[in-house]
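Quick one: structure tokens for this chain, please?
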Amino acid sequence: MTDDITLPEPIELNYTAKAGTPLAEGVKKASHEDIIGALKSVQDPELMLNVFDLGLVYKVDQKDNGDVEIEMTLTSPTCPMGDEMIQMAAQAVSSVVGVGVVTVNLTFDPPWTTDMLSEEIKLMMGI
């Protein structure tokens, strides 16, 4: 007798998470460093490493009006926490003073590899 193994469904390829509200006129927009700091507060729940140093964040585009668009990926399309991680990234960045609406778009192009890890994480893992 064999046991059936159920694999998680792949996350929707065009998944987008949004958070925040438009920045009030006259409010100074956040620094890029503060936005990166917020992304570093979001951890992959399985690896217990932050999404930025894991190399999951491909692009951070801060608009003049304070809105932020982020392009990120996951270590696997079948990540069981994928949609929650994307939403956590949007929430973390939207909590930064000087950030308006945050849009996080999921991509798998290019696919994530261990080459995308930060140098610090590579050293820690012996890669």
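Residues 82-94 form the longest helix (13 residues).
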